[in-house]
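Notebook entry, structure prediction.
Reason for the run: the old model in the group folder had no record of what sequence produced it. Starting over properly, with the input documented here first.
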Amino acid sequence: MVALAPSSRDTVMTDGTARLYRFPAGAPGGPPVLLVPSLINRWYVLDLRAGSSMVEGLTAAGLDVFCLDWGEPNDEDRYLEWDDVVARLSRTIRRVRREVGGEAVGVLGYCIGGTLSTIHTALEPDSVSALVNLAGPIDFSEAGFLGHMTNPRWFDPEAIAGAGNMSAQQMQAGFVALRPTAPLSKWVGFLDRLGDAERLEALQSLETWASDNIAFPAAAYVRYIKELYQENRLIKGEHAVRGKKVDLSRITCPVMTVTTGRDVICPPPSALALNQRASSEDKRHVSIPGGHVGAVVGEKARTILYPALAKFFRETCSSSRASRA
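New structure, fully documented this time:
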């Protein structure tokens, strides 16, 4: 059985169900980077297996890498609000800054983690030296089929979440609806890989992670669907957190948006709205072949994505340090 989450890590903070990890294989004193995974998936997709690990790629490039593990919400976390989730991310970033001597840090958010990281950066721009949005939706009018599924004409998030947290099974059913033939394709792919140990191992690792989803806190889910998917308040400048409007133009640090060619969860125009609305002088875009998940852990990730991320953070975080020296 292949080892999942193989990188050695230390837990430097706990916050409710969340954990903050630091990877000692990195370079203390190197540019600090916090990885923020999706709220509804296990964090270790960013450290899936040896050779297919963003953590491995970034630590090898001399970055001081941290990762937020959101943890699995308990039943009582049904009352965890969207503002509470953003506040937890903000506390995590403050702790990373304390660990590295107070400087601003690079932040990479993946999927919903990209949306949350963008919101935090707009609210507290001085805390982030560089921001990567990795397939995180920003303009929800470009949300594709997920936007259609959550149309308020037939989708009531309050009724759906009325019984408590959105379970992993409920969330997974929505993603299966995006690609109803995916289970069949998976088994065809499994048979195709039987004679290739490396590709079979990759498929088994990804399948283990994909079957290990976690729930979405009910209160946070309702606000996320209503204000972002259904009302598109983030791009309109009408989304508020802790009583403060989220103004994307307040983002001035270097930003990079990463899109994937076959992304049905976050279509490229949705993610690229960050580049259009941020006030940053340094705005970049990297497009990776593949889908929403495969592009992050597949062969192209090793050869395109991880090197591009390392280069971006080395250039932007280092220049940020130099400007403060």
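Summary: Confidence is low (pLDDT under 50) at residues 180-194.
The old model has been moved to the deprecated folder.
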